[in-house]
Amino acid sequence: MENRDFLITNDGICQIFDSVVHREISAHPYRLYRLITEVEDIILTKQNDKIRLQEICQIVRLLLDSSPWLQVFYLEPSPDTGWSVLTLYEEPGFDLTVQIVAWLPGKVSPIHNHATWGVVALISGSEKNTFWRRTNDLKFPDQIKQVGSQILEPGDIMSLMPDAIHCVEPLGEEPTITFNIYGETDFSRRFEFDNVTNTAKNF
Ligand SMILES: [Fe+2]
């Protein structure tokens, strides 16, 4: 696996993310429960989303490097929708989304933001991410324009700021499999965008 870390800013700019792991290599696997515990500590002690992402990206990297089970632990995508979601952690009162998502080639996601910080690690396959930003046109407040794209390969980790807007397209013949972790969604700010009609709807 390669080790590329990307940050997608609130304006949809894709940057190399400096999130080098400054940790001793442990003889023990870095397990999922440990990651979730550390993510909670980061949320409680760090208010800045970029700093949160930098620290969470580091420990997602540790998980990737010591969890071969991630390669095979997913649900077959539905032929109807083209995707599947396997929830890895859920607890009432702690709004953390931890899941493995599989997408079939030939499907493209809606253009959307997440209205919270998010970290997506590509486990398998190849995935094109296209990034957008609002044009801030007073006449068309929900108008967006494309600002870039990045193809993710296995081992790549993409960190998304809350207002980053993207859409996802699996490439090649194989499904893409991603490990995803998101914070608490602000549903009033989460949208799907239509770049033809210049509209956005809550979802
Ligand atoms: Fe997304």
Summarize this structure briefly:
The chain is an alpha+beta fold. The protein is built from 2 helices and 13 strands, in the order ββααβββββββββββ.
What does this structure look like?
With 203 residues, the protein is α+β, with helices and mostly antiparallel strands. The protein has one domain (5-202): Jelly Rolls (Sandwich), CATH 2.60.120. Helix content is 16%, strand content 39%. The chain is built from two helices and 13 strands; from the N terminus they run ββααβββββββββββ. The protein has a seven-stranded mixed β-sheet with strand order 2-1-9-6-11-4-3, covered by helices on one side. A three-stranded antiparallel β-sheet has the order 5-12-13, with no helix packed on it. A hairpin with a 5-residue loop joins β1 (5-8) and β2. α1 (32-45) runs antiparallel to α2. It is globular. The N and C termini lie far apart (34 Å).
Distance between the termini: 34 Å
DSSP summary, beta strand count: 13
Radius of gyration: 17 Å
What is the count of structural domains? 1
Beta-strand share of residues: 35-45%
User: Considering the protein shown, what is the CATH homologous superfamily?
Assistant: Jelly Rolls
Would you identify the regions where 5 or more consecutive residues have pLDDT less than 50? Answer: none
The secondary structure category is alpha+beta
**Which CATH first-tier class would you pick?**
Mainly Beta
Q: Which small-molecule ligands are present, each listed once?
A: fe (ii) ion
Overall average residue pLDDT: 93
Instruction: Examine the coordinates and then state which fold CATH places here, giving the name of the CATH topology.
Output: Jelly Rolls
In DSSP terms (H or I, runs of 4 or more residues), the helix count works out at 2
